[in-house]
């Protein structure tokens, strides 16, 4: 048997390559599909099946793109009217060399969710289950996508899927989730790639709840829903356009022309570089945070142009593809140095150290302290007197944020992103806190108990 995990950093997504005796199946492929073709060549194997465990919400799935290059059938659950592929139902089986793949209908996270159970035909014993977003290490899938009023129903379905379909399979069965720690598809996913049914029975607190308590927990769960999810749902239901992987290199004049025409300008350098100097009107989303946060701030209509330290950025290009941004256009040739070497106008963002913030607080300074961390982190240790707005909600809540504001987060990355967005929207007196709450605590400064 051949088993490979394909990780997509930033969105914390796992897809899988499973092979046996010259045949392979792909589970939940991402849209930049070259890795699956490379693995097929490496193992001298033909891709025969492409399984979608559900209509994914946080990335554009790559099934149609992959099917352009291989003779494979696309398979997904029957409780949703996909515009492509073949519907499968409970009990459908597929031969893959010495393996048998069986479909289990496991609704709850979504109504059409399926899990793929793998058996070795020589023993007929369950070995592996690909669960999509039903079960994670230390967590289970969210159930809020159909509205608050539907949560009791979807939570009940998820509980039944877990306790009637998955947990009885045996403690030895390896559980392969579609996401790892950091994904917004589960509230508190543990930082590990794989788990087993037995280990989750021992360690996953949600599996120890009775049904009534489980539903109540889900009703009270706080999770974030990025606005780009709607676009992902549409792409994955109807089939996304076949992606164009190219980002055009733009010289300074072309790049400046795109800015004047209203392109979305994203600077993907780190916060300290951005604060020191950047192109006016830039939104700062640091490179490794791009897939997690771009969907909160960028639209799907206006062209997107990228500036980095030294030209192109392959990780950002792939992130745009995975998030379905077909309106991507290009990047600044030569990076930000090429901009200022050509004498173009530059801007900066004021950055405060924690010492300066503490000093200004002690002096009774008149400014607004904004905490942009997640609710759960905020509740543990906020700075006294600060107010809260999760960074992804800032575009909707600008009216609640006053002009003179100091923004902080965990370490300074999200706060600089938030501050850059505020500046784009006319805030002239906005600062980011370097080091964030981490530096504040290390300096021994007080937090609200």
Write a structural description.
- The chain has 449 residues and is an alpha/beta fold.
- The chain has 3 domains: 2-237, Metallo-beta-lactamase, Chain A (4-Layer Sandwich); 248-341, Rhodanese-like domain (Oxidized Rhodanese, domain 1, 3-Layer(aba) Sandwich); 350-442, Oxidized Rhodanese, domain 1 (3-Layer(aba) Sandwich).
- It is built from 15 helices and 24 strands.
- The strands form 5 sheets. A 6-stranded mixed sheet has the order 1-2-3-4-5-6. Strands 7-8-9-10-13-14 form a 6-stranded mixed sheet. A 5-stranded parallel sheet has the order 15-19-18-16-17.
- Strand 1 (2-8) and strand 2 (13-20) form a beta hairpin.
- Helix 3 (151-166) packs across helix 5.
- The termini are far apart.
- 46% of the residues are buried.
Features:
24% strand; Oxidized Rhodanese, domain 1; 3 domains; alpha/beta; 6-stranded mixed β-sheet; 449 residues; Metallo-beta-lactamase, Chain A
Summarize the structure.
With 449 residues, the chain is α/β, with parallel strands linked by helices. The chain has 3 domains: 2-237, Ribonuclease Z/Hydroxyacylglutathione hydrolase-like (Metallo-beta-lactamase, Chain A); 248-341, Oxidized Rhodanese, domain 1 (3-Layer(aba) Sandwich); 350-442, Oxidized Rhodanese, domain 1 (3-Layer(aba) Sandwich). The protein has helices at 34-43, 63-67, 151-166, 197-203, 211-220, 229-238, 252-260, 271-276, 290-297, 314-322, 335-341, 354-362, 375-380, 413-424, 436-442, and strands at 2-8, 13-20, 23-27, 46-52, 73-77, 86-88, 93-96, 99-105, 114-120, 125-132, 135-136, 139-140, 174-177, 195-196, 248-250, 264-267, 283-284, 304-307, 328-332, 350-352, 368-371, 387-388, 405-408, 430-433.
